[in-house]
Amino acid sequence: MKHFREYQAVQQAAKQTLSELTDFISPSATEASIAAFAQTRLADLGCPETWYYACPAFVLLGSRSCLSISGSDYVPATESVGETNLITVDLSPCKNSLWGDCARSFVVEQGKVVSNPVNAEFRRGLEVQQRLHSRFLSFVTPDTTFGELFRFVNDLITAEGFECLDFLSNVGHSIASDLKGRLFIEADSQSRLGSVPCFTLEPHIREKGGSWGFKHENIYYFDERGQAVEL
After folding, report:
1. Which residue, 1, 45, 58, 230, has most beta carbons within 10 Å?
2. Can you tell me the distance from the alpha carbon of 54 to that of 52, in angstroms, rounded to the nearest whole number?
3. What is the mean pLDDT of the chain?
4. What is the pLDDT of residue 168?
5. How many independent structural domains does the chain possess?
6. Is 26 helix (H, G, I), strand (E, B) or coil?
7. Is the pLDDT reported for residue 2 higher than 60?
């Protein structure tokens, strides 16, 4: 992939920031304070810019974890995390026109971020996201179309008893050099995944009848063997 190391450095800044949020998130944290922390850390790590409107850190918690809107309309709320919650954080750093794009869901129980939640709905949401990304890796090839991947992922989401929440009804997009240049993983796209340098998988899902919206996003590219690899 062209500029592989540069892309990887930007994506690593996003991943490190998300990792550091595990200790930052507390019962008194809010969407606004989490977004501010993430933006500061991304800048500290050499990525002070964003490619996604003016929204380097898209943070949603509580009932808003199911909200799907454009970053151009996003305003962080001031509701506190509290003792029990789900927080989604989607980071979009940029450096020298090279994009990063990474999202994670943080479960809070008893006021702390936990990796193995007791709450069954929290646990199922995290597990389903992991299965979606794992199954996707064994399905895609450079010749798979964006539309074929859309149908594959949505069939898996339905089979798991979940639903897609994305307001554009897509589950990812290509990494481009400007917003208008993105190709989306949507139903009617005949573009091949191998035609772009790299792309995201980012299903935003909720268990049917559930209260929480889960995100997990990585960037992927194809190696010399034609295998999809996480950036």
Report:
1. 58
2. 6
3. 96
4. 86
5. 1
6. coil
7. no
- Residue where the block lists tokens 């208008």: 180
The pLDDT confidence band at residue 169, using thresholds 50, 70 and 90, is: confident
Q: In the numeric block, which tokens belong to residue 155? A: 């069939």
Give the residue carrying structure tokens 């809010």.
30
Buried b (16+ CB within 10 A) or exposed e, 193-218: bbebbbbbbbbbbbbeebebbbbbbb
Rounded distance, CA 80 to CA 16, Å?
24
Residue 164's CB: how many other CB atoms inside 10 A?
Answer: 17
The structure tokens listed for 26 are 């507390």
**Structural domain boundaries enclosing 55:** 4-230
The CATH number of residue 117's host domain is 3.90.230.10
Q: Strands 213-215, 204-207: parallel, antiparallel or unpaired by DSSP?
A: antiparallel
pTM (2 d.p.): 0.95
Asked if residues 118 and 125 have their Cβ atoms less than 8 Å apart, the reply is no
Buried (b) or exposed (e) across 1-37, using 16+ Cβ within 10 A? eeeeeebbbbbbbbeebbeebeeebeeebbbebbbeb
The pair of three-digit structure tokens given for residue 134, joined into one six-digit string = 């794992």
Residues 6+ apart with CB under 8 A from 78: 30, 31, 32
- HSE (CB half, 13 Å, CA atoms) of 34? 34
Please write the tens of the pLDDT for every residue from 172-229.
999 998 888 999 999 999 999 999 999 999 999 999 999 999 999 999 999 999 999 9
